[in-house]
Amino acid sequence: MGISKAKTGQMTSFTLLAVILFFIEWVRGAVLVAYLPAYTLMGWGLSASVVGIAVSVHYLTDSLIKGLVGYLLDRFPGRLVLHGGFLLGFTGLLLIVTTHSAWILIGASACLGAGLSPIWIICMSQIKEENRAQRMGTLYVYWMAGLGLGPVTMNLIIGRSLPLALWIIVLFLTVGWVIAAFVHLEKTTVTRIHSSLGEQFSALWSKVKNGGFLLPGMLLQTTAGGMLVPFLTSYAVKYLGLSHSQLSVVLLTGGAGVVLLLVPMGKWFDHAGGRWFLVLGFGIFSVALFGLTGVSTFSGAVGLALLLGCAYAALLPSWNALMARYIPEDAAGISWGLLFSIEGLGVVVGPLIGSWLASIGNELLPFRVSAVLFGLISVVYLLSPARLFARREKLAEINP
Fold it and tell me: What Cα–Cα distance (Å) separates residue 39 from each residue in 161, 162, 173, 180?
């Protein structure tokens, strides 16, 4: 009976964390994609370039601060870090919607990014090894739902009233904060360690070296994906001949493929494991992405978007579950934080590389280079030793 109650408590806390993730990502998407541009351009007349800088600074801060967040989680109670993040994020949000100054807006956007950063690492630290891929799939469903629904619903509300949009954003962040008060974070050894930051980094680096493909794979995939971000809309309109409404259908189709298959793919990986989820996931993603550079019909774009979504659903939870096997259990917080920060570098560098490729060729080039990079990752995993994909307990036997 006690074990059953413990498992029920773990599931309830995980569900609450997933719901909090939804509210946080809803706020992020609503503010950065919809409300911030509308408010600054329509409300106070700040330039579009200021908005662009504020958005970039937000994501840069969110990525780079994760290492610090992990460090704090290894030394302080998770609830303290979570509520401190909400306080910082709430402060940034209030500054964003009340400022008249470009510099304050940029600083407030960074503050919001820092405040929303802890939730992912806290979620990761609460997932057990035996069902990690399934739980990761669930988290990504909530993440994508929040990030996608935030801009869509906010654009509809902004058309009615900017002040109403402000109150709804504040309401969503407040609800997420209230839910956080009911979360019970499981106590682990990571909150009681006394090793130095250098010792924890050395332990992580030793693990990563044993899985030599891990670091290049992280950087390549986030860089390859980031290369496409500045050109999705213009490429779809200019080269595919899609209207904005057709582009919305294409994006929704791809997103639906991801959301519907994330949890089943995660369960399958937890049961079967192995490299093939990554080999086939990255390989199919590469082929479908390259196919987008030659498609000429709306139905063809929808079909390839669905294939991209299915491939992404296969590789995403399996990749994160695999990465978790190389995380030192006695320094999970700082380790996840550092790995997320490394992944974030690709998101920052990718758009710069994509813009450079487009400037020396055309907007087809970033898509083709990105497809080649994803294909390269697939080949690397195919040729990597099978022992690198072993479960954690076997990795411990191979690399004690």
Answer: 11, 7, 18, 29
For the cut 60, the answer to whether the pLDDT of residue 43 exceeds it is no
Residue among 374, 238, 250, 363 at smallest CA distance from 301: 250
Place of tokens 């009911």: 182
Structure-token pair, residue 325: 């096997």
Place of tokens 């994609």: 33
CB 324 within 8 A of CB 129: yes
Give Cα 367 distance to the centre of its chain: 21
Rounded distance between C-alpha atoms, residue 154 and residue 172, angstroms:
12
The answer to whether 66 and 341 have CB atoms below 8 angstroms apart is yes
What DSSP element (H or E) covers 117? none
45 φ, ψ (degrees, to nearest 5) = 75, 20
DSSP-derived 3-state class of residue 385: coil
Q: What is the mean pLDDT of the chain?
A: 77
Q: How many CB atoms lie within 10 A of CB 244?
A: 9
Closest CA to 308 of 251, 356, 233: 251
Whole-angstrom distance, CA of residue 34 vs CA of residue 39: 9
Residues 144-186: tens digit of each pLDDT: 888 878 877 787 787 777 788 888 999 999 999 999 998 887 6
Helix (H, G, I), strand (E, B), or coil: what is residue 240?
Answer: coil
- The SS3 of residue 390 is coil
DSSP letters, 119-178, are HHHHHHHT--GGGHHHHHHHHHHHHHHHHHHHHHHHHHHHTT-HHHHHHHHHHHHHHHHH
Please check whether residue 190 is in contact with residue 332, taking contact to mean a CB–CB distance below 8 angstroms: yes
Q: Are 10 and 125 in contact (CB under 8 A)?
A: no
Which residue carries 């399996």 as its tokens?
Answer: 318
CA 25 → CA 104, 116, 282, distances in Å? 22, 8, 26
> Model pTM greater than 0.70?
no
